[in-house]
Amino acid sequence: MDEVTPQIIPPTTSCIDRLEDPETLSYDEFFQKYMAANAPCLFSAAFSRSWGSRRSWVTSDNKPNWEHLLQAFGDALVPVANCDVKEYNSNPKELLPLREYIAYWREYTENGHRSARRCLYLKDWHMRREFPNQDVYETPIYFSSDWLNEYWDAIAVDDYRFVYMGPSGSWTPFHADVFRSYSWSANICGRKKWLLFPPGEEEHLRDCKGHLPYDVTTAALQNYCPPPLEVIQEAGEIIFVPSGWHHQVYNLEDTISINHNWVNGCNVSIMWSFLQAELSAVQREIGEWKETMDDWEHHCQIILKSCTGIDYKEFYNFLKIIAEHRIQALQDGPEDNNLQGPNVMAPGPRHVLFDLRKIADTLILLTDNKDFQKLDTETLNPRPEDLLRTLERVIERGDCRA
């Protein structure tokens, strides 16, 4: 697999590429044209046609199958956001039994999209983690190199696989995804409107205090807001949102969707840049206490983790776990797999070597970072310099066999 560097593409038109046929779209083609290029695209409904949720979660007229959802998941506690209330540039959430949310949703829809409880949106439900044996969906091959969920599965702490359900009018405010990760989102039923802004365009939207807007469609922003890429996503379609693309999303109908956030060798450098920028923001915020606070660097890392979900030492552990998995895959895998054809699963040996090189590149940047050097890294096993030497040896052997 060729070496690539994520690129930032400029805004172009109000449409994005549509990929029609899973029989002819290869992993390599998606890798080079969209993932490595950091460019959005839309997959047709043919790519999700075989999913269990496309059959059982949806009625014949493309509406949510309430009875099936109640039978399968009715007692599950789900996070529900109030779309009509702003709280720190997001919506406040509460946990409700799914059966209570569905009862609200049906009443809201039957009452002309009005309710004393206002517009509620089920968001960020870890359905896959709670119900691993349900026949719901299969991650498309194109999104299968997923370091983020691979890592959190390995440590059995969290995951970044979600289900969203909401009525017409429910929406998600302006944001970029966690760790500036990629995301893919598949509509099981219903339609969404996406407003997408390439990286850097959000800078034009900051107010005098440097804050990004909550809603980019407000009248006050119309004279200043660069035009977004507007995408209408139909039932069954899957949208690929690249790293660092800010977006705002609306449900145009009763809609159910499945979403993953993920990071891999193509965008791990963007994740690392994001963490550095977040730490710099923390350091500025508490900089006045630097000379008087014991272990100021450690406190900065604590705040970084509370804000982003990860600190520098865990970022190292993230790289280490993926490296160990790839080294093992190289030892166990076939001698030659060039990812030819659309149905070859990644990663093969070329993809593994690509991943290892990207981990090594990022590890060099991490160990050279002055803030990382100030941390107590004695508990890290193996030590970062030892892991780097191991990676260099494995990559050299792999290159010799290639």
UniProtKB/TrEMBL annotation:
**Under the cellular component aspect of Gene Ontology, which terms does the record hold?**
cytoplasm; nucleus
| Source organism superkingdom | Eukaryota
This entry's Gene Ontology molecular function terms read:
2-oxoglutarate-dependent dioxygenase activity; catalytic activity, acting on a protein; metal ion binding; sequence-specific DNA binding
Instruction: List the InterPro entries.
Output: JmjC_dom (IPR003347), JMJD6_ArgDemeth/LysHydrox (IPR050910)
Cite a single GO BP annotation: positive regulation of translational termination
Its UniProt entry gives the catalysed reaction(s) as:
L-lysyl-[protein] + 2-oxoglutarate + O2 = 4-hydroxy-L-lysyl-[protein] + succinate + CO2
For this UniProt record, give its keywords in alphabetical order, as a comma-separated list: Iron, Metal-binding, Oxidoreductase
Q: Which cofactor names does the annotation list? A: Fe(2+)
Specify the JmjC domain's residue ranges: 128-279
What SUPFAM superfamilies does the entry give?
Answer: Clavaminate synthase-like (SSF51197)
To which protein family does this belong? Belongs to the JMJD6 family.
PANTHER family (UniProt xref): 2-OXOGLUTARATE AND IRON-DEPENDENT OXYGENASE JMJD4, ARGININE DEMETHYLASE AND LYSYL-HYDROXYLASE JMJD
Q: What is this protein called?
A: 2-oxoglutarate and iron-dependent oxygenase JMJD4
Q: Which organism is it from?
A: Eleutherodactylus coqui (Puerto Rican coqui)
